[in-house]
Amino acid sequence: MGWGEIRERLRDADLTWSFRDYGAAAAMSVALLPAASVFLWIIDLGNDDYGGGYNMLAVLVYLLAEAVLAPVVALAQPLALTLPSVLLARFGRRRLGGRTWAWHLAAPVGPGIAWGLLAALAGHSPALTIPFLTALGILPSLWVAYVRRRTWRQWGIWGRAALISPVLAVLVLGGGLTATVTGLIPRYEPPRLTTAQLAGVWQGASGARLRLRPDGHAEATKLPLADQKSDAGFSDYTMCGGSGAWKPDDTGRDGILLRLDCGHATHWAFAGTEHDPQLFARYGDPDAGTVWILRRSG
């Protein structure tokens, strides 16, 4: 059996896709970018920003990244998620019958599981990646099936997808914020650590080490502490070692106030979780500074 005959049989079984199918898949994949970005931002509200924030530069970088990603998504997402879903939907409907829209709604689960399991090898949770990837494949798959019954040209396909894009983003934003306010998506809350939980050794990058004793004494090695302010008014840091004292400090975010023989008194805030606590200090620009994180040793 030659390749030509194989292609003919696949075409007869409706298991091929055309350039028009690919264009429809690419159009809706790009249209989903803003909504997907909004969704990831809302999910990120459940993570610790370590005292950082957003500024105009970050927004501009985000918009630039969206523009750069658009052609990449238009090329890759249809091949990885949408077209496999479309072929799976057509195969299932031909073999088992049923409504076209129902098969195109269910079929993205297959590629979503496949790519989610591959992502698990890189350390990503399948419980998050599989639903997310499946959701990314649903609308493009339905869009391909819908466009197939229309006589639109490519510009019409892309134009209508562009009109749908902001609507999807607003719907995701509204639903996500509602879920956050009602507690369905919990916002991050730092742990509340007692003196007993704080006592012990904390370690960080570049050999940073801090020992906190229950009586309020502290010993440090290669630990960054606040130094004089820069010309921009932000606190720099200097590497310190030696002994000093610490005490609980609820100025701003709960944490400790650490004083050593060098540097200035520095606020180390609580981060992490009750089971995996952290201490952190941010130096420089609050929106783009340096964050030092200490983790409990042992």
UniProtKB/TrEMBL annotation:
Designated name of the protein: Uncharacterized protein
Ordered alphabetically, the record's keywords are: Membrane, Transmembrane, Transmembrane helix
The species is: Streptomyces griseochromogenes
Highest taxon above the source species: Bacteria
Membrane-crossing residue ranges in chain numbering: 21-43, 63-89, 101-122, 128-146, 158-185
